[in-house]
Amino acid sequence: MKKRKLACFLLVLSVIVIVIGIYYSNFEYVSNKNSEKRIAKINKDIRDDKSVKNFYVLGGESQLIQLIGQKSKFGIANKTFREKVFVDTELYLWGDKDNIIGKSLTIVGKSQDGNKIQLASIGKVSKNGHIKIPGESNDISVAKEQLSLKFPKKGKWDLDIYIDNKVFGKLSVNVLPYVQNNSSAPSSDLL
User: Fold this and answer.
1) Residue 131 buriedness (CB in 10 A; 0-12 / 13-18 / 19+)
2) How big is the CA angle at 71 (ends 126 and 182), to the nearest 5 degrees?
3) pTM of the predicted protein model
4) Which residue of 4, 83, 161, 167 is 20 to 30 Å from 143, comparing CA positions?
5) Helix (H) or strand (E) holding 17
6) What is the dihedral of CA 31, 138, 45, 61, to 10 degrees?
7) Closest CA to 105 of 88, 116, 118
8) In what order do the strands lie in the sheet with 116-122?
């Protein structure tokens, strides 16, 4: 009798585990599908407006990454930049692979007072881009590079992005004052 009760208990427990597993996998599928739809709608709304600086790509695990830059050309992950602090970010590049992969990359910043400094330099661009958004006709970035940027002063900075010593793109960022407990959380402090 005890064996029969134990067998029934294990059977019920197995059914519960299976039902929970099915529910969880359906929930994750719906969640990912909703993220993909949301990204597609956001990008559709700004697809033809080249002057819009914010746009999104899909990172690993259906993570939305907000970029600033020029859609279908380049974008830097939207971070809070603070003076005198290194901020880790990513640069995504679109275009002809032959004109990007294996070429040098340099980012030069110019402060409001005209001070120019080199913020980043990579000998050869080599990394793959982002994940394609399902159902979206966007181009997949051909390259993605990790950057660590440090600005010496607060204020507006104009950035020139060079590939193979030719200007590839330009954008402006607002660098905030230094604070003791710096956070690199996404912000809308970009110009």
Assistant:
1) middle
2) 75
3) 0.64
4) 83
5) helix 2-46
6) 20
7) 118
8) 116-122, 105-111, 155-163, 166-175
Beta bridge partners of 70: 74
Residues in the chain: 191
* Ramachandran region, residue 165 (left: φ > 0; alpha: ψ -120 to 50; beta: rest): left
The DSSP bridge partners found for residue 58 are 64, 131
> Of all residues in the chain, what percent carry a pLDDT higher than 70?
67
Count CB neighbours of 32 within 10 A: 14
Beta-carbon contacts of 126 under 8 Å, excluding residues fewer than 6 positions away, are 101, 102, 143
Q: What is the pLDDT of residues 31-73, one digit of tens each?
A: 455 666 665 555 554 444 444 467 777 666 667 788 888 888 8
Instruction: Please say if the pLDDT value at position 30 is more than 90.
Output: no
